[in-house]
Automatic annotation (TrEMBL):
Keywords assigned by UniProt, alphabetized: Cell membrane, Lipoprotein, Membrane, Transducer, Transmembrane, Transmembrane helix
Coiled coil regions, renumbered to chain: none
GO terms classed as biological process: G protein-coupled receptor signaling pathway
Organism: Athene cunicularia (Burrowing owl)
Main location: membrane
Name of the protein: Guanine nucleotide-binding protein subunit gamma
Keyword Transmembrane: yes
């Protein structure tokens, strides 16, 4: 979205004029309540938390440490001999 949500709400309230003002104000109030229910977090803080979460669990991640040979369902069971 190009515009700030608060600008859009302000535009809707200003454009309402005298007709339908109650409906427009109700729509504005609803839009503001929805906007306030969203939790805004800084990207730097979120990315740091995600990085820490991944690093804490990397020891048990099979994509990082690999799958033990005895538990690997995709290991080759036997070789193929072409005669």
């Amino acid at each position: 979205m190009d515009k700030d949500p608060l600008e859009l709400v302000g535009f809707a309230c200003a454009a309402s004029g005298s007709t339908g003002a109650v409906t427009a104000c109700a729509a504005c109030a609803l839009a503001l309540m929805q906007l306030l229910s969203v939790l805004f977090l800084q990207v730097s803080k979120c990315s740091e938390e995600i990085k820490n979460y991944i690093e804490e669990r990397s020891g048990e991640d099979p994509l990082v440490k690999g799958i033990p040979e005895e538990k690997n369902p995709f290991k080759e069971k036997g070789g193929c001999v072409i005669a």
